[in-house]
Design goal:
single chain; 353 residues; alpha/beta; 2 domains; 12 helices; binds pyridoxal-5'-phosphate; PyrdxlP-dep_Trfase; aminotransferase
């Protein structure tokens, strides 16, 4: 039997049809319709946030957040999905990388703050909660320089809390991806949670062409069909989160003595978005990958290569480049069983060098 890396939540089709009939009755398919409003309210309540703006994907969430905060140059992490940096580069921001912390694999906060302070024309930090593991949000909040905005790429951090506070309430904006491969999804989609209502208002205009406001906008709205999928999937999200977290804890228990695991923020909850291991070497990783493949188990090198190596003229980032050369992401999804996790771990232990 194959064990897939991922298997998106399949929305309940009966419930989905009911919502789609409602869309038809309303004859309102996009542009901030009723389902859009319902999903916004339910997500705000569920996640414990305010000023949540639904958008069409996690990439435009980053771009719109940066625009709404009037970002110029951006300091960001080399260890993330490529979109964290490429979305901003595409939009014309200058992008500088700052290396990660060797234990958490998240942007090393003091160095990033120092870099943004030193560089003329740089006024924004974009940090990813990689695999759902929060950055050092408390330190960044305490030491955020005036005139510098912080955007968190929280694409992996749905439902995560830091000392009972939603991780999405840190920083000036947090962006989410609701891509089908994410633990909560709307097929394609995303959201931005702003600290301030004024930035939410700007962003809401920007994603609807900013008509009549003397600004240049874009079309980044979520439509009613996407919102319908979100409403259906939200009904089972507690179950999804608890099952995935249980699988994550099982992996941790079985593998913590054999592999390097990213050190989790000590006050943060987990969401089971991803489970990754750090191998002792890239050779060990190759051996493990082959063994997994032979056993019909998928794995993926998330996130290799380091983003800085894909940008012309970017400095080398030794810690991130070392970590990505040994990282392996293991299967984890809602339809997996604890027995599946045990099977994966058995193969890993047997193939370890
Ligand atoms: C960290 C991170 N940022 C941004 C994105 C982009 O999100 P989307 O695919 O919804 O555009 C993703 C996921 O795909 C991601 O993993």
């Amino acid at each position: 039997m194959n064990i897939n890396l991922n298997n998106p939540i399949k929305p309940d089709l009966k419930k989905l049809t009911k919502y789609l009939e409602q869309v038809e009755d309303n004859a309102w398919y996009t542009n901030f319709g009723q389902l859009h409003q319902q999903l916004t309210e339910r997500l705000e309540a569920y996640l414990g946030v305010q000023n949540l703006l639904l958008v069409n994907n996690g990439t435009s969430a980053l771009q719109v957040a940066a625009k709404a905060l009037s970002a110029n140059g951006v300091v960001t992490t080399p260890f993330s999905f490529i979109a964290t940096a490429s979305a901003l580069k595409w939009q014309g921001h200058k992008v500088l990388f700052s290396d990660v912390d060797g234990k958490s694999w998240n942007l090393a906060a003091p160095e990033a703050i120092e870099l943004v302070n030193q560089q003329d024309g740089f006024d924004t930090i974009v940090a990813t909660h990689v695999y759902g593991n929060p950055c050092d949000v408390e330190l960044i909040e305490a030491q955020q320089p005036s005139g510098v905005n912080v955007i968190y790429d929280a694409a992996h951090a749905f439902g995560v809390r830091v000392a009972e506070r939603s991780v999405l309430t840190f920083g000036d904006a947090s962006t989410l991806s609701f891509h089908a491969t994410k633990l909560f999804h709307t097929v394609e989609g995303g959201a931005i949670c702003f600290k301030k209502k004024e930035h939410f208002d700007i962003a809401k205009r920007l994603i609807n062409f900013a008509q009549h406001h003397g600004e240049i906008g874009i079309n980044a709205k979520m439509n009613e069909y996407q919102a319908a999928v979100g409403l259906v999937n939200l009904d089972i999200i507690d179950d999804v989160l608890s099952h995935r977290t249980h699988l994550f804890e099982t992996y941790t228990r079985l593998l913590k003595n054999d592999f390097i695991l990213p050190e989790w923020h000590d006050k943060a909850s987990k969401n089971g978005a991803y489970f990754v291991i750090g191998c002792a070497s890239s050779e060990e990783r190759s051996k493990i990958e082959s063994a997994l493949q032979e056993n019909n188990i998928q794995s993926r090198r998330y996130f290799e290569p380091a983003i800085n190596t894909q940008f012309e003229d970017a400095d080398s980032m030794p810690i991130a480049e070392d970590r990505v050369s040994k990282v392996l992401c293991l299967p984890l999804h809602y339809y997996m069983t604890v027995q599946d996790v045990e099977r994966v771990c058995k193969v890993l232990k047997e193939s370890k060098l």
